[in-house]
Design a protein that fits this description.
CATH topology of the largest domain: Dihydrodipicolinate Reductase, domain 2
Radius of gyration: 19 Å
CATH architecture of the largest domain: 2-Layer Sandwich
Number of helices: 12
Bound molecules: NADP nicotinamide-adenine-dinucleotide phosphate
Mean pLDDT: 97
């Protein structure tokens, strides 16, 4: 198979670097363009990028020139790791120029005609793309993945939704520093500390899972009728977002059946064979002190959601802890899986 040429927008940032790493030797995609801001355009990637990942920078990227983030580069699919403001301006221009854009940015996630997708949860929501193209007159399109804290939480809730129904969820996040990009939170703000405020994050967690858990009907997504209350906190962890969730169902359920349901969850058949799909979507830990970010974030190469401490909740029905790697499944890995889904569905060729 001839590989599909792909671009990484915002390739020098925290998420962009994950894309550079995950796309090395990808079986379907070949990176043909890396873009940045005025700060790095024109430089070789190896010089302009301050590499923050533990593994070395892949050789293929080192000598590539950083290009302007605007239409003109050679690629059919563009993975976007742009800040929301930059995405708001440039992603529509790229879609209008014919590119398929798989975006991590929040700019268009809640737009009614833009799919917000986790392939294990709602791969059918790509059905919005035809409506988006018709309404906006774009030959290309924009598809998004959720905020990194919503990812693992939504996967866990999707596993439970068909069996028990979802009524209410109270969630408290403990979010890693890499979720704020680089340089992110100042060291003197976070050392020996927890910051109980992440701008815009609570609103995202209270809205995005409802869209993904909703149903596509007549060209629109009906959000799931579940109500979320979220508290978000930044903690001194490098990678891996943890969420403590208390959930009320439509039908009463106990920890044993909930744990079984989580462990048995499988992605829809088409998604299971995608190159970046996790073999196990959810790993359920039975130890009283797991999951932990340092020990569990690399489960399934960062694509498996780890759930533990499944127990009875005195207020709602059940409570548990969810861990998901924020820059892998929560960002670049999730967006890459979305790109693979587009190929499998014939929306990118
Ligand atoms: N970090 C996470 O865990 C995570 C998870 C899910 C979603 N996201 C989302 O992913 C996006 C990227 O996050 P990040 O953490 O990687 O941010 P980041 O480290 O700050 O990187 C931002 C990237 O965008 C480029 N950029 C900035 N302003 C630009 C402009 N005006 N035009 C073109 N390029 C511009 C930067 O290029 P230069 O280096 O050349 O300036 C850099 O490559 C954000 O929308 C974020 O909300 C992040």
């Amino acid at each position: 198979m001839t590989k599909i040429p792909v671009a990484i927008l915002g390739a020098t940032g925290a998420v962009g670097q994950r894309f550079v790493q995950l796309l090395e030797a990808h079986p379907w995609f070949e990176v043909t363009a890396l873009t940045g801001s005025d700060r790095t355009v024109g430089q070789q990637y190896g010089d302009g990028c301050r590499w923050v990942l533990a593994e070395p920078m892949p050789d293929y990227a080192r000598g590539m020139l950083v290009l302007p983030t605007e239409p003109g580069f050679e690629a059919r699919l563009a993975f976007s790791a742009l800040p929301a403001e930059a995405a708001r301006a440039v992603e529509p221009a790229l879609a209008a120029a014919g590119y398929a854009v798989s975006s991590n940015a929040s700019a268009f996630r809640m737009a009614p005609d833009v799919p917000l997708i986790i392939p294990e949860v709602n791969p059918d929501h790509t059905g919005l793309i035809a409506h988006q193209r018709a309404a906006r007159g774009w030959p290309g399109f924009i598809l998004t993945n959720p905020n990194c804290t919503s990812t693992g939480l939504t996967i866990a809730l999707k596993a439970l939704q068909p069996a028990f129904g979802l009524r209410r969820a109270m969630v408290v996040s403990l979010q890693a520093l890499s979720g704020a990009g680089y340089p992110g939170v100042a060291s003197l703000d976070i050392l020996d500390n927890v910051v109980p405020y992440i701008p815009g994050e609570e609103e995202k967690i209270e809205q995005e899972p409802r869209k993904m858990l909703g149903t596509l009907h007549a060209g629109a997504v009906r959000p799931a009728p579940v109500v979320f209350s979220a508290h978000t906190n930044r903690v001194a962890v490098s990678d891996g977002h943890m969420v403590c969730a208390s959930v009320e169902f439509e039908r009463a359920a106990g920890p044993k059946e909930v744990a079984e349901c989580l462990a048995g969850f499988e992605a829809p058949e088409m998604v299971r064979t995608l190159p970046s799909a996790p073999r196990q979507v959810i790993e359920v830990r039975s130890e009283p002190d797991r999951p932990q970010p340092r020990k569990d974030r690399l489960a399934g190469a960062g694509m498996t959601t780890v759930v533990g401490r499944v127990r009875t909740d005195p207020l709602f029905h059940v409570k548990f802890v969810v861990l998901s790697h924020n820059t892998v499944h929560g960002a670049a890995g999730g967006s890459l899986l979305n790109g693979e889904l587009l190929v499998a569905q014939g929306l990118v060729q």
